Amino acid sequence: MKTDRADILACLRESEDYVSGQQLCDRLGVSRTAVWKVINQLKEEGYLIESASRRGYRLVESPADVYSESEIASRLHTKWAGKKLHFFEVTGSTNPDAKRFAEEGALHGTTVVADRQTAGRGRRGRSWESSAGTSIYFTIVLRPKFSPDKASMVTLVMALAVAEAISEVTGLDTGIKWPNDIVVNGKKVVGILTELSTMPEMNEIQFLVAGVGVNVNQNSAEEFSEEIRKTATSLRIESGKSVFRAALLERILSRFEEDYEIFEQTLDMSVLRERYEARLAGRDAGVQVLDPSGAYAGVSRGITDTGELVVEKENGERVLVYAGEVSVRGLYGYV
Amino acid sequence: MKTDRADILACLRESEDYVSGQQLCDRLGVSRTAVWKVINQLKEEGYLIESASRRGYRLVESPADVYSESEIASRLHTKWAGKKLHFFEVTGSTNPDAKRFAEEGALHGTTVVADRQTAGRGRRGRSWESSAGTSIYFTIVLRPKFSPDKASMVTLVMALAVAEAISEVTGLDTGIKWPNDIVVNGKKVVGILTELSTMPEMNEIQFLVAGVGVNVNQNSAEEFSEEIRKTATSLRIESGKSVFRAALLERILSRFEEDYEIFEQTLDMSVLRERYEARLAGRDAGVQVLDPSGAYAGVSRGITDTGELVVEKENGERVLVYAGEVSVRGLYGYV
Questions:
Q1: Closest partner residue to B201 among A204, A206, A324, by Cβ?
Q2: N or C: which end of chain B has fewer CB within 10 A?
Q3: pTM (predicted TM-score)
């Protein structure tokens, strides 16, 4: 039934004119009664659907920011990314959910989406703000064939896909704060958390999950906790327009699928590097590297083919910065 | 209540003479009624406990191979290994259970024990035989501070602890089939499966689980599936005596705790290597290395400080064999 709903929605959305009940039946191989039931359900959920005798059905308007399994599935035309969707109105955090599905054998591309998280967290255990109806939270399960040492680059691939998708949908200029945050006007709008399960003697990845949290429709800084109010923002605050989350999620998953397949070809960032560097926050600008053995200032020059950040120190020396070892802060303009 | 049971059992076991009800109350800070209830429960489970008025209680005999949370906990004197126990009569497999507990925040040393597994598996997804009352299945959760590249050595540390514990308890001569199997008289009695959860950009381990399956009290080869009948055996088959599983598990956890702390000091096998090599199956004997790029024969000479197998080829060249890349078979005497 869920698939029928998504298919019927997709048919209606893609047609500018009326779609007859018979057409829907034929295309999906279901009965007239089934079509009629789904149409009624959709109406109840707030879709404005015109029914005209002998002409059929026409989708006049979708409810504002409807965010459901059917709505998302009806938009996706990916091969594997999000092909299998698990949608939760509310969950603790989509990463643990995705890991559980992965342990139970979930296929490559399986995606967990939640409207709200109650226990989201970022790198270093920092909590990630969460409220209903305002954010995108999703985690995708990947089953790569490559070895665990390549896994950290998946975070970069995801960051690139999300940054470009946001720019495409909202027109905002997005920057990637290497390795895994996305900033708009110097403030954070996206956090990415990748986790990996391996058998150490096998040098094989069992599965990898990449979780993404996007601040989308928060109206004002007051919707963020005090802890992050100065450093976080939302797409709506920055663009002045609310964003249809299902459409943005579709763009993210679609771009990620494409970029991930490019990455898989070479197992490095060589092909994607130029696009990544074009969005690198603070590129050719000052950064402060908080190395456990001492902080130093420098200028961020780009990334290597294997994903390390290249920082040029004041004395001209070029240093490769490995994620996890350090925290990089912008000296000007970003957090 | 569970802790009371374990404590009362431990008191009774450690005393050769009667222990008065009052002594038990004082030591555990519980009421006479609570002690009385526990004693009755233990009797119902098959413990033979003598009660004599004015003298107290005396443990005459434990039921044959009693295997329960209380029985195991009452024997453990470790600092962290198995300090928190989850005992299941039956489960799919203790590794996924342990990973679930770890995701939910289980402490270092938390151990899942099952009397029976319905979905056990080894490296390369091979299934591991399972029936009630005959085997030890446990998985320990570790939260190491070291980086993921050290994790494969934990398998070696566990193999050493298990091999020595079995020899101590049964008198059998155990060999370690590098990296993660234990053999007796050329047949497999133990399999170990280590799994790791990391955040790839952080170069940190979130948790590691090490799962162990031991064939203990199988009576005859017929109890193994045909697939493994020729290559598997049990401690009972080889020693001619049944083994009290809770006592063996105690020795394993205790030895593992000790060896793991030694390993943690240097983060390599330098201190444990000699003991490991003394048990290395096929040492100075022929092995066949099934390398994906071609099989070759050689003589196993030992391990390196970082846990690789050293194989001397026929032309005298010494090769380091990394686990996961190859499968090593004995030419003579072990599988």
A1: A324
A2: N
A3: 0.78
